[in-house]
Amino acid sequence: MEAFFVLLAIPLLGGPCLWLLGDRNSAPEVNSGFSLATFAASAWLTAEVVAGGPVTAWGEQFFVDALNVFLVALTAFVGFTTSLFSRPYMRIEREKGRMTGPRLRLYHSMYQAFMFTMLLALTTNNMGILWVAMEAATLATVLLVSVYRTAASLEAAWKYFILCGVGIAQALFGTILLYFAAERVLGAEGNALLWTHLALVKGDLEPAIMSLAFVFLLVGYGTKIGLVPLHNWLPDAHAEGPTPISAVLSGLLLNVALYSVLRCKVLADGALESRFAGNMMMGFGLLSVVVAAFFLSRQRDVKRMFAYSSIEHMGLVTFAFGMGGPIANFAGLLHMTVHSLVKSAIFYAVGHATQKAGTQVMEDIRGLMKASPTVGWGLMIGTLAILGMPPFGVFASEFLILTTAMREHPWATPFLLLALGVAFAAVFSRVQPMVFGDTHLKPLAHQPALVPVFVHLGLGLMLGLYIPPYLAAWYAQAAKLLG
Amino acid sequence: MSPLVGQVINLFAAVLLLIAFAMLAQRRIVTLIHLFALQGLALVGSTTTVAFATGQHHLYWSAGITFALKVVILPLILHRLIRRLNVKWDIETLINIPTMMLVGILLVVFAFNLALPISQFSQSIARGTLGIAMACVLMSFLMMITRSKAVPQVIGFLAMENGLFFAATSATYGMPMVVELGIALDVLVGMVILGVFMFQIREQFDSLDIHHLEKLKED
Amino acid sequence: MAQIASLLAIDGALIVVAGWLAIGVAGLAALHNVRLVGRLLFPLSALLSVALAGIALLALPGTPQTAVLAIGLPDLPFHLRLDALSAFFLALLGLASAGISVFAGGYFRQGEGTPPGLLCMHYHLFLASMALVLLADDAYAYMVTWEMMALSSFFLVTTNHRIAEIRKAGYLYLLVAHVGAIAILLCFGVLQANTGDYTFANMRAQHLSPFWASCAFGLSLFGFGAKAGILPLHIWLPEAHPAAPSPVSALMSGVMLKTAVYGLIRVNFDLIATPLWWWGTIALGLGLATAIFGVVFAAAQVDMKRLLAYSSIENIGLIVVGLGLAIVFNAYRMDALAALALAASLYHCLNHALFKSLLFLGTGSVLHATHERSLGKLGGLMRFMPFVAWTTLVGVIASAGLPPSNGFVSEWLLLQSFLFTGELPNPYLRMLVPVFAAGVVLVAALAGYVMVKFFGVIFLGRPREEKLAQARDADGLERLGLAWLTAGCLLLGLFPVAVLEVIDPITVAMVGKGLAQSGHAGDWLMLAPVSAERASYSPLLFFLLTLSIVLVAFALVRRFYHGRVRRAAPWDCGFPMQTARMQDTAEGFGQPIRQIFEPFFRMRRELPSPFDSAPRYKVTVEDPMWAWVYLRIAAVTEAASRLVGLLQRGRISIYLLYSFVTLVALLSLTQL
Amino acid sequence: MNVEGLLAQITALLVALAGAPLVMGWVNMCRAWLQNRAAPPLLQPFRLLHKLFWKESVIAHDASPLFRVAPYVVFGCMLLACMIIPTLSTNLPLAPAADAIALVGLFGLARLFISLAAMDIGTSFGTMGARREMLIGFLAEPAFLMVLFTASLISSSTSLATTVATLAHREFAIQPSLAFAGIAFTMVSLAENARVPVDNPATHLELTMIHEALILEYSGRHLALLEWAAALKLFAYSCAGLAIFFPWGIAEARDHVALLWALPALAVKLAAGGFALALIETILAKMRIFRVPEFLATAFLLGVLALLVHLLLGA
């Protein structure tokens, strides 16, 4: 109860506080402090769940179960490490003149606001509030994407805003339809949008309405997940915004959007009693994986490339959830977790690399290993991890997804094989010369924050070899919930 | 519940649809804003009628917010915007208007077909409204696709919200209050941010033509 | 005593693995300390290798042992199992790596890219992951260690990453390895038959329909073939081997390729209960094609390590031929013959591990002494590096498959198994298989050609460059490594009966029958896998006879005549201006092969005209698989990505249209 | 191992050592007659060997120990080959040490050493000779093995003794497979022993020679050993061919009388074979070196064909 309150109150307070604080020299540290406090609160909440099982609060407006508890912890954790990373990153940006005082003020306050929306979306029990939080997340980040005020960043932000806005509007229509269906069963009161209530009566929801609702919700939230062909905002926004924002977009926003779809899928599955929702997700997932893989092979900008890689991975996860079943769902949840950790780690490393090189064009970044072995190894290991090399967790989930797909949907495996092969070829051929070889890069003015990189990669490594029992239990429970 | 109320709501729905068509066909930005305000007004009317008919008091609040936001504030902001940015015309649509109208009609048929099987479940007074709401959403979508300047695109976006709101109020007697407040807040903040954006874009490109925003691509 | 040893064998193997990992970590701690890494850590690791080989050999005849590690997926901790097959390959790993590690201790020096400590870490990670691959008893453990193996060897290959070519070679290697790994993963996906249980024990228990079993076979052939270098997936091998430092090439070629063979055997003889006969013909065909391709290309190479790489491809081809034959026999339940073919393959694995490692290490010494890899710039090293030359000669004889070396024994066994195909029930196979036998013989003979070229051009003749006269022979640790492998080659060649007794439990486990050898075990001298009347070969007798004839002849010549020798200049045909550069070159040596097998090659020649003041002759031989397969794949990918690129042209209206169309399409779907 | 076996083995050894130069001399005699020349005496090869053994060995400055070891190894290989081929008797105690495949391997080993030795000096001729020798080898070896396989399949054994014993005990029948194999074998033998049409043993014209190029740098006792080894090789091939295709008169286990008869039988067969060889060498012209692969490929093909014909017709 209190944990919810603290968890949401800290970032909610943090936003205005940092706005007031402005561009004082201590702002990055304060930002990290708020993030740390949030992380502590999430740990508290997690501990409560570990101790006592699912929790609800405030007249059931908030709740935490196996499906979102680890996402809450993960979100708070990545939020915290990203804030650590952004300290030296933003200082260097400021010295380079790319960030100014007002922009930093905007950045820090919006960072906290974004964290708030993420946590709100995760913990709310109300499908309507979920929608509100998702929309607010877009609004919080859109100005950050354009924070450099370059033509490209403006364009990226505009596309982000319009495409996600339109997409999320569809999700609202879906939510209305959901309400429309629920109202008949639960009555026209505030509870009709509470997920816990909906889940209890999901079998009674009208299938005809629910199928329409799910389509709207999938298209809506799917836009935020970056499912092909709704993905077009994603590479632009990742490439043009500041790197910490790319990291949280990839590491958090996509996860939360996918989480929203999963909540809807549970309801749709219950109502439809067919594989309609699953098939649709499989289709989207597969298309995303394949198309993103081919996009990967034509990239020149490093952040853009890793943005496409996020699309690919989100596609894979969507495909896994589409397949359903305990193993695939388990794998999907694991993949969400590890992708978030590893991809953000990659963005941290990439952030420093691009600052060193002064460009995001990969052909101009060479020999990181020589210029700065830690950044080089961070990028190399991160890339290998994200490409599904064991013993990292990405591999563990890909292993489960592919082996399951092989028997349940063998038609899909050639596509997956093709896509993973192409993706590997594309990404690795670009990262390898960035990391190895000779260099002309110079050291940075500030010590780069590499602890987050290696902590994330270490966690990713751990999840490939050892999944803590309670985490595994959550995954298993959530997998069961997802059906 | 009297059939009269149902007829009134249906009337408002028809007006909404008509305005949606008009917006699709409209070239002048100023007129577009007027039409948008008009649509908002129709929305307020229908919401009030529903509130009156069903006695759901929070719908009055909804109507009030809608009135404030969509009939007064947003059109004002938009007017200010176009005055400040000095854009009044939007000649270019990407597809010619008769074709667009044709596509619009097809969309309406499509939306009605989709809504037909589910509107029978509606306990609400006006069964056809869901189809109309969906048609409005889809037509606003179409409008956004076919406009090549920023402001009309935004108006399309807002019109889409109107359609959604109409669905929420008339088909389901309104969403829970918290949600509605949240939605309204989002729309407002969104508008502010959009305004900021417009200026930034204008400053950067000396124009609001979104053709300038086509640099980021795969080539 | 044996009881206790057998009981603890798997723990012993794990201790060795842990020891390797510890050495790796220690290397990381002593990042730039060459002396510590070279003089202490690598020799220590070699001791562990010997221990591993000993443990494995002790455990081989015993019952399978299992262990479960505390890591892995929640319901799937790492299952390990040490049975006869894995013990055999572990012994192979131990034997080969012992020599290689000692050699590596003397080989790695400062200033070659990656710091020595890091290299030591990668190297031992590589060793440990190979051992774990062989021990793994569930799909996840297998895949994790399999990819670790690929990854650590990738870093080893790119040790000298400043050079763009080496980076490219490493990239190609990892790419092929990764695609292959996905195929293996899918193969396991088939084998687990939707039970969600990924242990090998469960896979053994499944009875797959012929369709699914064939899928598994195809995937395993593709996946393991990518690692082993089966045509047309061999493409990375000739790039990666020259790029890697020599001990690494030795380890990759000698041991790592065998893990792929291990995988093929594990999947197709152990996990799949019912093989189909036509799998065997596919394996036979592919294997033979690989072998011929490999050996023909080896003959045309002018880079010594590349030559050895193609020769490895050839040997893998022969091994796969043996496996194919074993599958055919196994499918028809001709167990004794399947055992013979399988034993031949296994024996060849062991032999190839030793002699190819030996040859690669030999090239390593040459490379160190001369800094030259190109055959065109070597020559006459026998006089400056006699130790390396003589040990390499043993490897050369083995690689050429000539008696009394070990290479001959396995080829002999393979040919023996071919001669029994008359008993096959399928008439087509009866006709087809002898043709394959002819191909195998052709390959074996060509291997001799290749090896004469290899040895002759490097060690014989006169030095083609001035600097070669400064070449120094290998020293302490390097010599020890070479000597170890040489001894291995000789012993394996001279005592095949003992080796076959070791292999026996494996064939019993895999195809249900051992060789007849075990029946009359007393005859340790004579190798007669079926019966002495049918065929027999006694390498020791053979060797002693040859040796005694040579010695007697020598003694008699000295006794009856004299031993006078006069040194003089060689016969110059009356042309006094002879230089070392005028010797026949490696290109020249390969020329007849290039001519005979012309359609195989994509050749580009620059011929000098009679009027050139500085005439140049240049010939480049390209692997046709590049153009036939890989460039096409690249072109298709390129085209596809260009098409996909059209999706994103930057116009927001188009993007909105995508969303719109998607929405409408999905909504329409709900109406179906 | 029994006394008879030991006796047979020693006899075979002595017969080979003595018989090989004799066969060489006989072929040279026949050839001279056929070409209307005055023939050298039959024992001429022995005199040549004796002379060479007495001569001083001249060795190039750059020669490595391998160069000096090679002649002994080659000689040893060839002698061993003669000892395991059932020339007089199938009751050879050493025969199980090597079967048909090992026999081919043995020839291969000798070829490897002689080629390496030729490359050792570093003259163009040596390397060229080595290259050509290996070229012939890689085509001839499989063809030879195919011939042996055909015989092995008939007798279901690769052991030469068993094969010959089986073949000798069969009723006389025209065997198409053996006919093919016989032609293949003849072609291979010509190539392997450096005879016309592949090589000309009588010439020293540098650009066309193969065998002579290999041993160009050898002199004195080393050359003597190599010449003797060459004679032994011819003898071994002849005996192997005779044993497989004309297996009559070869003694079997514990048959003392037959062993006595085997020697004259072998002499007659060798005489006939030698004459046939001389005839071939007189009739045919030497072919260009680039035609040799085609020639040998034909032999290989015939060998495979023989194998297939056997499997197809069962004969």
Oligomer: heterotetramer
The percent range for helix content of chain B is: over 70%
What is the total tally of β strands of chain B? 0
The helix/strand class of chain D is mainly alpha
Helical content band of chain D: over 70%
Order of helices and strands of chain B: HHHHHHH
Termini separation of chain B comes to 60 Å
Average predicted local confidence, pLDDT of chain B: 82
What does this structure look like?
The complex is a heterotetramer of chains A (483), B (219), C (672) and D (315). By secondary structure, chain A is mainly alpha-helical. In chain A, 78% of the residues lie in helices and 1% in strands. A two-stranded antiparallel sheet of chain A has the order 1-2. Chain A is globular. Chain B has 219 residues and is an all-alpha fold. The N and C termini of chain B lie far apart (60 Å). Chain C has helices at residues 2-29, 34-59, 84-107, 116-135, 139-157, 164-191, 200-205, 210-228, 237-243, 246-271, 277-300, 304-331, 335-370, 381-384, 386-399, 406-418, 427-459, 476-494, 496-511, 539-560, 586-596, 624-645, 652-670; strands at residues 65-73, 76-82, 565-568, 602-606, 618-622. Helix content of chain C is 69%, strand content 4%. Chain C has 23 helices and 5 strands. Chain C is globular and about 105 Å long. The mean pLDDT of chain C is 88. In chain C, the strands form 2 sheets. Chain C has a two-stranded antiparallel sheet with strand order 1-2. The interface between A and B is large, with 52 and 50 residues. Strand 3 (565-568) of chain C pairs parallel with strand 1 (57-60) of chain D.
Features:
heterotetramer, A: mainly alpha, two-stranded antiparallel ribbon, 19 helices, 1% strand, globular, B: 7 helices
Write the layout of secondary structure elements.
The complex is a heterotetramer of chains A (about 475), B (about 220), C (about 675) and D (about 325).
Chain B: H1 3-25, H2 29-54, H3 58-85, H4 97-119, H5 129-146, H6 150-172, H7 177-205
Helix pairs in contact in B: 1-2, 1-5, 1-6, 2-3, 2-6, 3-7, 4-5, 5-6
Chain C: H1 2-29, H2 34-59, E1 65-73, E2 76-82, H3 84-107, H4 116-135, H5 139-157, H6 164-191, H7 200-205, H8 210-228, H9 237-243, H10 246-271, H11 277-300, H12 304-331, H13 335-370, H14 381-384, H15 386-399, H16 406-418, H17 427-459, H18 476-494, H19 496-511, H20 539-560, E3 565-568, H21 586-596, E4 602-606, E5 618-622, H22 624-645, H23 652-670
Antiparallel strand pairs in C: 1-2, 4-5
Helix pairs in contact in C: 1-2, 1-4, 2-3, 2-4, 3-4, 3-10, 3-13, 3-18, 4-5, 4-10, 5-6, 5-10, 6-8, 6-9, 8-10, 9-10, 9-12, 10-12, 10-13, 11-12, 11-17, 12-13, 12-17, 13-15, 13-16, 13-18, 13-19, 15-17, 15-18, 16-18
Chain D: H1 3-34, H2 44-54, E1 57-60, H3 65-84, H4 100-120, H5 124-155, H6 160-169, H7 176-192, H8 211-214, H9 220-245, H10 256-283, H11 292-313
Helix pairs in contact in D: 1-9, 1-10, 2-9, 3-4, 3-9, 4-5, 5-6, 5-7, 5-11, 7-9, 7-11
